[in-house]
Write a structure and sequence with these properties.
single chain; 327 residues; alpha/beta; Quinone Oxidoreductase, Chain A, domain 1; Rossmann fold; seven-stranded mixed sheet; six-stranded parallel sheet; 15 strands; 28% helix
Length: 327
């Protein structure tokens, strides 16, 4: 038996969430069983748990798009028992039972061996949000961006992806401008490495097709009008990475930034990202993560607090990363 967050749906379509024991015999098929030590609460998890977004594809479902732990049983020679592993994405917590549980059974090819640098708790302090931020930084670099080309912008900077992106970019020597709707988080963001703090209100309403060119690169978690305004304010040959939709799925933009300034918009898919790129992302995270800054981002909660914390996260009441201790 192990404890887990379980989402169920009744015949009339009503969704319920509870935390309680689950028998090991109910675990899905898979060639690796992991004893989960830590999980996290991500934006997608919060949508699933609260029912505010159509995330869960089948019921009952254990949510949790990521976890870190130790292999207990394995049919794979490359992942023997005792191996410390991390998982991000692959439909876990949506179509496959996820990480907000004491055990997880998954396909071995979904797992990445955890770098020795990290504890399992630190791995989840980074989590899918931080791994996604690293994918954004790597995409900016693949497009040739460097600190000498100008400042970079991070939207949703006080959230999970944004917090890690600010830390990583500042560690790489970029001048980082952090966009947030929570001015009370200025001290927190500057401690992570932000050089300037900009109010979200300046990005959240429809703007002009082209704005004053300011940014060489950007990491956007918002979508919607925010992403459109970010693109409109890029320097010539600027690069924008898009990895979220907190402000909406629409993209009310024009082609002007792309054909008049040569702006590049790069989509970031952290869910189905190839294994080799995941390994590289975790290697880079091991190099660039500042343990003290990482710890400053973290709120730790027990598994029993997950349902109420999910609602608070969607209501903008949670900053940084939420790590979940698994009994």
């Amino acid at each position: 038996m192990f404890d887990a967050v379980m989402i169920e749906k009744s015949a009339d379509g009503a969704q319920t969430v509870h935390v309680g024991p689950v028998d090991d015999s109910r675990l899905p098929d898979g060639d690796v069983t992991v004893r989960v030590a830590w999980s996290t609460l991500n934006y997608k998890d919060a949508l699933a748990i609260t029912g505010r977004g159509p995330i869960v594809r089948q019921f009952p479902m254990i949510p949790g798009v990521d976890f870190a732990g130790t292999v207990e049983r394995s049919a794979r020679a490359d992942l023997p028992p005792g191996t410390r592993v991390v998982l991000n994405g692959w439909g876990v917590g949506e179509r496959w039972w996820g990480g907000l549980a004491g055990r997880a059974r998954v396909r071995g090819e979904w797992l990445v061996q955890l770098p020795d640098t990290f504890t399992t708790r630190q791995a989840m302090a980074i989590g899918t949000a931080g791994y996604t931020a690293m994918l954004c930084v790597m995409a900016l670099e693949r497009q040739g961006l460097s600190p000498a080309q100008g400042p970079v912008l991070v939207t949703g900077a006080a959230g999970g992806v944004g917090s890690v992106a600010v830390m990583l970019l500042s560690r790489l020597g970029y001048h980082v401008a952090a966009v947030t709707g929570r001015p009370q988080e200025e001290e927190y963001l500057r401690a992570l490495g932000a050089a300037e703090i900009l109010p979200r209100a300046g990005f959240s309403t429809p703007g002009r097709p082209l704005e004053k060119a300011r940014w060489a690169g950007a990491v956007d978690v918002a979508g919607g009008a925010v992403l459109a305004n970010v693109c409109a304010a890029m320097l010539p040959e600027g690069v924008v990475t898009a990895c979220g939709l907190a402000a909406g799925m629409d993209f009310p933009a024009t082609v002007a930034p792309f054909i008049l300034r040569g702006v590049t918009l790069v989509g970031i898919d952290s869910v189905m990202c190839p294994h080799a790129r995941r390994v590289e992302a975790w290697r880079r995270l091991a190099e660039l993560t500042d343990p003290q800054r990482l710890d400053s981002m973290v709120t730790e909660i027990p598994l029993t607090d997950v349902p109420q914390t999910a609602a608070a996260l969607l209501d903008g009441e949670v900053r940084g990363r939420v790590v979940v201790s698994i009994p």
